[in-house]
Every structure is written in C-alpha cells, then in structure tokens.
Amino acid sequence: MIYISFGSGVHRSLEELQETERVILKKHEEKYQVHSNFTFIKDRFMDLIEKIYQKYGQKVVVLIDEYDKPVLDNIEKKETAIEMREELKNFYSVLKDADPYLKFVFITGVTKFSKVSLFSGLNNLKDITIHPEYATICGYTQGEFEKVFADRLEGLDLEKVRRWYNGYSWLGEPVYNPFDILLFLDLREFRPFWFETGTPTFLIKLLLERNFYLPSLEDLDAGEELLNSFDIDEIELETLLFQTGYLTIKHQEEIGDTRIYHLSYPNLEVKSSLHKRILTKILGSISRKDKHLISTYRLLIKGDIEKLAQVFKSFFASIPHDWYRKTELHHYEGFYASVLYAYFAALGLELRVEEAVSHGRIDLTIIFENKCYLFEFKVVEIEPQGKALEQLKARKYYEKYIGRYQEVYLIGVEFSKKERNIVCFEWEKVKS
Fold this sequence. Notes:
Elements: E1 2-5, H1 14-32, H2 41-56, E2 60-65, H3 69-72, H4 78-92, H5 94-97, E3 102-107, H6 115-118, H7 142-148, H8 158-165, H9 178-187, H10 201-209, E4 220-223, H11 224-228, H12 237-243, E5 248-255, E6 258-264, H13 268-283, H14 286-302, H15 305-318, H16 321-327, H17 333-346, E7 350-357, E8 360-368, E9 371-379, H18 387-394, E10 407-416, E11 421-429
Helix pairs in contact: 1-2, 10-13, 13-17, 14-15
C-alpha cells in the first residue's frame, strides 16, 4: 500500500510541494526496501509502484488524502495555485499508466477538480461525491448517533443537537459532522467546533467582493455542472460554498433531462458562524460585532423595537469609511438587505427569506420566542421614503401569521445609498 497525504503544513511554493513529494516517495522506498535511479518525481512514483508489485507479486493499493490541499493553500495567489495544480496533475498522471499494477485507488479532498484539470486520462475513476450509496460514509446518521453514544445522551436536548450539528446531505440520509459530535459530547457545550478550526477568509472576501445576495443562501438552486467542477481560472461561489461544506443538498428535482439541486446551510453552526465572520469582516472588529449582536438579542427578548432601530443605525455607522471606499458595495441595493440578513443569521434566529403569501413575498421573516417580525426593505434613491411599512400594511402580509404567534410586528426599513445608513425605520404591532 502507498499512502500519500498533502494535509500537513502549508505548501507556499512549487519547490515545497516537490520536496514533499520526494519525501513521501523516499519513505515508501525505504519501507519496502526498493531503490530508484530516476530523478524526476513522476518517474520515481511509477518506479515505486512497479517495484512493489514485482517484489510482492500483488497489485498495489494507493490512498491519496487531501489531494487538492496544495492548490487550496494558495487559492488567493492564482499564479501559484495554477503551478500547484499543474505539478499535481503531472504527479497523478502516473496512475493512468500504472493501471496494470494497481488493485485499488482511493482519493479524498475538499474540492472537486474536473478530470481534465487534475486527472487527465483517468477515465476509470468513479466519483462518489454525490452518490446515495455513499451518502453517509463520512458522518453519523441520527440513528447511529443515538445508538453509538446512548450512554452519553442523558439530559441532552437531542433536537437542539440535531439543529446545531446534523444536516450534511449528499442525496441520502443527512449526517452529523463527527468532529463536532465528539467535541460536543466531551464538553457538552454548543459551540462552533468545526468552524473554529479555520477561518474562511477567502470565501468571505469573494462573497463581499462579488456582491453576493446573502439571503439567497437560504435556498439556492444549482445544476450538475455548477456543483461538479472547481476551476481556479473562474471560481464559482456556489461551487466553492458547496464543496467546502457551507452549503449542502436539501433535495433534488428533475425537470426534463435536467437535474436541479436545492442547496442550503447544513445546520445552525455553519449558518450562524459564517455570518458572524462576515459581520466581523465588514466592521473590522470582533468586539464591535459582538457588542451589536448582544444588544440586538436583548432588545428582541424585551420586544423593544424602537431601540432596535437605534442599534441598527449605530451598526451601519460603525462600518469604517475605508471599507466603503474599497468595496463600493453600498451602491447596490441588495447590500443593505444582505447585511441585515447576515446580522440576524449570526444570532442563530429562525429566518425565512422572501416567504410567499397571497399578495406577494415578504423580504424577511424572523421568528423568535413566539414573536414574528416581518421586514420590508427599500432604498430611498429608488422608491420614495415611507413605502416599506406602507407595502407591508397594504398587502396584508401579516394575515398569514395572526393566531400562529403571540405577537406580530411589521417593520419597514429604508436605506440611503448617499447616507450609507437607515434613514427611515417605521413599525407597527399587529392587533390580533
């Protein structure tokens, strides 16, 4: 067996990657007591496979873990990332000609590069990324979780555990992240264990740079081609979000010969943590972000809507001027709705985006402690001031919620591109 892993450390240059490849090959040569006279890495790799096969008279198993990490280590440096990709492509190309000596090859990684990008000619690879038969191979199902850890579940709110850590799905039963579950059962605290292992700075940078409409992450449609190929030359955000675990498949449908995947967050950990990082990026300060979120949470508990307006205005005023200068995002009307959506998502609240009612769609619905908040967002440079609350009332969006929740609030929030802040915040409590 030949085991290859690129998971340790960070490869910052082509030379570092090549040295890692040499070290891996040398360790296997010493282990199996074979010697190679070849200088080039790909030739040594091929020679190693052949000599192990000849020495033991058995076909060789090759296991490759984190096959794409050297590329992802340099994803923000496109030229270096392409160098890494081409080096790995050259390295993996050996597997094609080595086929007569190979019994089994198993490759794991984060992203899914096309076969042309990294595995040119390896047409016999079977991709099990989205395959119902293997959907639960990398996590605990609900049944497995309750059976395997039965002696540790006493006193736990299993529904809350499910909301926090379950939900990863690849056309099969959803599963828990094993990393999360093991740490949670040890500490018995609800924390973003997986998210704390790494900061998705590049992902957040792309989300903001491309003016991605954040509320759409609640329910995002994608075709097979979008999910199946990661390309350094043209990175699609939906592909990156799915392949790195920030979105998962909720269900699929077929329209004619076309397969559509409906994506959303896997669980509360991912949703809340991702948006906390986005807010921190916008404000440039963890402490400022925490201050605003804590204030908002306390006001929601009290039902103090008037002071909520002050907190929101203070939040937008806290965004550094230099951030606006660099991004120009405030010129896009969707930016303001995206920021407030990220704000509430970071609090871990139940959100419904553009929920359909008989007279249209509500921009944002928030459910919190048997209270329902209906938001309508407007930009005054596009529509006259005072239209947001007026629309909520005129179209009677609230009728769907009366009787279902103890309190229902209508909140019209209007922004100004010029002022870069909220210029109108009106609200009413609906009478039962």
